[in-house]
Automatic annotation (TrEMBL):
Residues 72-167 form a coiled coil. This is THO complex subunit 7. One of its GO terms (biological process) is mRNA processing. The keyword Coiled coil applies. GO terms for cellular component: THO complex part of transcription export complex. Belongs to the THOC7 family. InterPro entries: THOC7/Mft1. The lineage of its organism: Eukaryota, Metazoa, Spiralia, Lophotrochozoa, Mollusca. It is found in: Nucleus.
Length: 199
């Protein structure tokens, strides 16, 4: 026999209880009525009325149970429909994502081609505007000289920066030593005050 889980118990209870229409109470009343009916004497005039009442209560319970089963099946079908709809939406999202990625790649390629064409056009214009070889050689020599000066300036600045860094480290070290001296002085003063207070 398969084990009954808490979910199965709750599902059956909901099917019996319906939508909170006091079906549990109705079943209890049916049970009490059945006990009274079964223990009543056949000649009792209320026996037939109790039997009719039990039939009506059973009909109500069966209706509620059938309604609950139909609702449960409908919910299961709706859940399948929603799952299918969710899967369709996920597939469409994946397709849209793939199309967007492809469009991005194409756009990037188009931008690269456009950029290359612009660079080619600019280079062609620059080449046409360039002076002859002799003038170019003079300009290159001037640029080499300027570059050499810039290298020297950079080296001087780096040396100056290194010097400032060392000076800064010396200053930091001096500040720390001064701080230690001040802390030692404070401790000595506290010790002297404690000695004076104790005496």
């Amino acid at each position: 026999m398969a084990s009954v889980t808490d979910d199965d118990i709750i599902r059956r209870r909901l099917l019996i209880d319906g939508e909170g229409g006091n079906d549990d109470k109705r079943l209890n009343n049916l049970l009490k009525t059945f006990i009274r009916w079964s223990s009543a004497k056949e000649e009792d005039e209320n026996t037939q009325a109790m039997y009719q009442r039990m039939q009506a209560m059973i009909g109500q319970c069966e209706y509620t149970l059938e309604k609950g089963i139909n609702t449960y099946e409908m919910n299961k079908q709706e859940q399948k429909n929603y799952e299918k709809l969710r899967q369709d939406i996920e597939n469409k999202i994946e397709e849209a994502t793939a199309r967007i990625a492809e469009a991005k790649t194409e756009l990037q390629l188009a931008k690269c081609i456009r950029k290359n064409r612009q660079e080619y056009d600019n280079l062609a214009k620059i080449i046409q505007q360039q002076p002859d070889r002799q003038e170019t050689t003079k300009q290159l020599e001037a640029l080499d000289k300027e570059l050499s000066n810039l290298v020297k300036i950079k080296q001087q600045l780096e040396e100056k920066l290194e010097l400032r860094r060392k000076q800064f480290m010396v200053l930091i070290t001096s500040i720390r030593e001064l701080q230690h001296i001040l802390e030692d002085d404070e401790e000595k003063e506290k010790e002297e005050e404690m000695i004076i207070s104790a005496s």
